[in-house]
Amino acid sequence: MIRASEDNEFYELSSPTLLPKASGFLWNEKMMIHMNCRGYAVAQFMQPEPAKYSYAPNLEAKTFMQPEQPYYAHHPGRFVYVKDEETGEVFSAPYEPVRVPADRYTFAVGKSSIVWKVECGGVLIEMSLSLPKEEAMELWRVKVTNLSQRQRKLSIYPYFTVGYMSWMNQSGEYHEELQAIVCSSITPYQKYQDYAKIKEFSDKTFLLADRKPVAWEVNQEAFEGEGGITGPSALQEEELSKGDARYETPVGVLQYRIRLAPGEEEAYRFIFGPAKNEEQVAQIREDYFIKSNVNGEDGFEAAEREYDQYIREGRGCIEISTPDPDLDQFVNHWLPRQVYYHGQTNRLTTDPQTRNFLQDHMGMSYIKPQVARESFLLALSQQKPDGSMPDGIILHKDAELKYINQVPHTDHCVWLPICLSTYLDESNDYSILEEQVPYADGSGTETVLEHIHKAMKWLAGDRDERGLNYINQGDWCDPMNMVGYKGKGVSGWLTIATAYAFKVWADICEYGGQAEIAKEYRRAAEETNEVINRYLWDGEWYARGITDDNVVFGISTDQEGRIFINPQGWSLLSGAADEEKREKLMRAVREQLETPYGVEKLAPSYTSMREDVGRVTQKHPGSAENGAVYNHAAAFYIYALYSVGEREDAYRLLRKMLPGPTMEDIVQRGQLPVFIPNYYRGAYRQFPRTAGRSSHLFNTGTVPWVYRCLIDGLFGVQGTPEGIAIRPQLPSEWSEAKVRREFRGATLQIEMKREPGVTATEVYANGVYLENGVLSDLKPGTEYKVSVKIPVSE
Ligand code: CEZ
C-alpha cells in the first residue's frame, strides 16, 4: 500500500482513500505547492508577500501556513476529467472530484516531481507536476493511454482551479493566439497609498497549453451547471461552450477529443501560474514551448531538468545504513530535503520569526554553510544596541513584522549561540566571530562576538529579583501569552534555556580564544542552574513557569498542564538536573507524556481557558501547543537525552517521529513518511481516537534538531575544533550501522559494529587507533575508513 520506489526517488501510495490526506510538496525560489493524493493543491508564490493564483471559492483570509487544512469538494485542485464519448461514462484523475474508484492507482511523491498513474476502465492517465527553479509556475504533463483492446473515443478535460480571485474585479477568457486561458483580477485594497504596490502585482492566472484544445470553459458556474463539480453538466455536451467569466468565478478547463487505438497514447503539457500581463504569458509560451536549446530541449524540459538539479543540491552530509530501512530511507532521502526547504525559502515569509530563522539556518549549516553564515550575520545586523533581538528578521526592504511578530517574546537571544554552535561544528569557521556587524539603529558596528555577548547580557538582565527570566507575552511557546504580560511572570523553560545558552557560549568563547570570559559564562550558567533548582523543581519534574500573580504552573497539583516537556529536556542540557532528578523527570515523561506517536508537549491538555497562562490553553486539546506530539519540542527532548547518553529513550522517541512501520500506525497518522509534520495529535489519554493524526504541516523547526540528533547523538559524528569526534550511541537493538559522513571536504566511511570482548568503544581510522575517538587533521578530498568497535552490551 505504501513503499519507497525501487530507485528510492519516490514514495508511493496505491490508494486514494487509505490516507486521503497523504501529500507531498514542491518548492522553488518563488513558490511552494502542497499537493495531496486526490488532486487538491495549496500553492502560494512570493511577490514579495505570499499570494495566490489558485484560490478557494470564497474570500480567503491571508494568514501563515496552517496545520490540518480541511479539504472540501471545491478546494483548489488540479484534475483531469475523462469522458468515454461512446458510453458517456466519466471519471477523474487523480481521484477528485468524481471519485470513481480506479482499477489501479499510484500516487508517487518524488523529490522534484509528484506523479500519479490512474487506470480506470482501460484508460490510463499519467499526471506529473514539476516546477522550474526560479519562476512561480507549475509544469504539468498529462498522458492518456488506451490500455483496452478496442478503439476508444475519449474527451479529456484538464481542470485547473482559479477560484474566487477578488471582490473588486475578476474575469477570464481564452486567448487563441496564446493557446491559453488568462484570468484577470485586482488584489482588493482600499487605501490609495497601496495602489503603487498593487499595480505591480501578478494578478493574472494563466493556463497555457502546448496543444490546441478543441474547446474550453472559463466560467466555473457554466461548467458545473446543475451537475456540480462532481458531475459537471458541461461534460454532457459534445463540446464545452467556449465561455468566459465577466465578474464571475473563473476556471481553467480545456477539452481534447481523441481517438485512440489499443495501446495508443497522447501526451499534453500545461503551464499554470500567476502572471502580470498577457505579454508575459506570450513570453512564457515562447520560452517553454516554442524555442529549443542546443540540445534540442524546449524550455519546459530544460526547466524540469534544472529543477531536479536544484533539489539535488540540498543533499545532507550523512548517508546511513542501519537495521531500520525506514529510518535509512527517511534520513537519506527526505530529511535533508526538508531541512534544505526551510533554509532556502525561510518558510515563504519575508519576516520569519527570529527563532525560526536561526534554527532553520542551524539546519542549513549541514547543507549550505555559506547560506547559514550569511543568515546569522543578517540576523545580528537587526539586533538592537541593548542586546535584544527583534521578533522577526526582515528579509525584504518592503517587509514588515506581521502576525505573531507583533507580540513581544523574550527567547530570541538564546538561539544565537545554540544555532551558531552547529555552524561552527560543521565549518570550524571561528573567523565569523570577528566579523563586524552593524546594529539595527545604525549606531555603529561591532564584532559577532560582541553582539552575542550583548545578547547574553540582555538575557542575564531581563530577570526578576529571583534570577528567573521574564516571559512577557511568550517564549518559544508562541501562544503562552498571558503568563507574564503584566511584567512579572517568568518562564521556567527560558531560564533553563538561558543557562544552556551560557554554557554553549562559554564553549564557543573558549575555542575563540577567550578563556577568561568563558569562565564567567560557566559561572553564570551554574548560578542560573541553582536558581532553577530552587524555584522550579517540583519534586518529580521541573515547573514550566511562574505567573504574574506568582503562581507556579506545570506542577503536580495542576489538573491540566501538569507537566511540560520543555523544562525537562532543557534541564538535562543546562546541567540543572543531577542524576537523581534526571531519572525522576525521565520517568515522569515516560509515564505522563509518552504516547505511541511520540512525546507530548504537555499533559493533560487544557480543556478550558486558563487566563494566567493564555491562549495556548484555548487551542483544541491535543492540537498544536496544547498537548500535541509537537515534534519541535519532542526533538529538543531527544537531543537532550543524547546529550546525557540516554540512548534508549532517545532512539525510541526519535523513531516515533516517523509514521510506521506498521500499517495501522501509518493509517492513524494519515501521512507518508516524506516529511516530519509540525505535530501529531496528542491528548492520547484524553482523546485516543484522534491521537497520532498528522498536522500535514511541513514547516517546522523540528528537522534541524533531528539532524543534530543524528549527527551529535545517534551516530556521534560531530565536528569539533580539532576535527571530528566519533562517539556513536546506537540503541541496544542494533548490532551494527554504517555511516558515510561528508565533513569539511573529506569523506568518512564509518562502520560501527558490536564486538564480543570489547569493553569500551574503540575507534580506528585507516587502521590507526584514535585517542578519545577524535579524528583530527582531516584533509579535504581524502576518504577515511573508520571502524568503530562497540561493546555487545552497553
Ligand atoms: O508556530 C510555531 C512557531 O513558528 O510555534 C512554535 C514556535 O516556537 C515557532 O517559532 C511553538 O509555539 O501562533 C500560533 O498559535 C501558532 O500555532 C504558532 O505558534 C505555530 C504554528 O504551529 C505555525 O507553525
From TrEMBL:
This is Cellobionic acid phosphorylase. SUPFAM superfamilies: Galactose mutarotase-like (SSF74650), Six-hairpin glycosidases (SSF48208). It comes from the Bacteria. Residues 74-288 form the Glycosyl hydrolase 94 supersandwich domain. The keyword Glycosyltransferase applies. Residues 318-716 form the Glycosyl hydrolase 94 catalytic domain. Keywords: Glycosyltransferase, Transferase. The lineage of its organism: Bacteria, Bacillati, Bacillota, Bacilli, Bacillales. InterPro entries: 6-hairpin_glycosidase_sf (IPR008928), 6hp_glycosidase-like_sf (IPR012341), Gal_mutarotase_sf_dom (IPR011013), GH65_N (IPR037018), GH94_catalytic (IPR033432), GH94_Enzymes (IPR052047), GH94N_CBAP (IPR037814), Glyco_hydrolase_94_b-supersand (IPR010383). The keyword S-adenosyl-L-methionine does not apply.
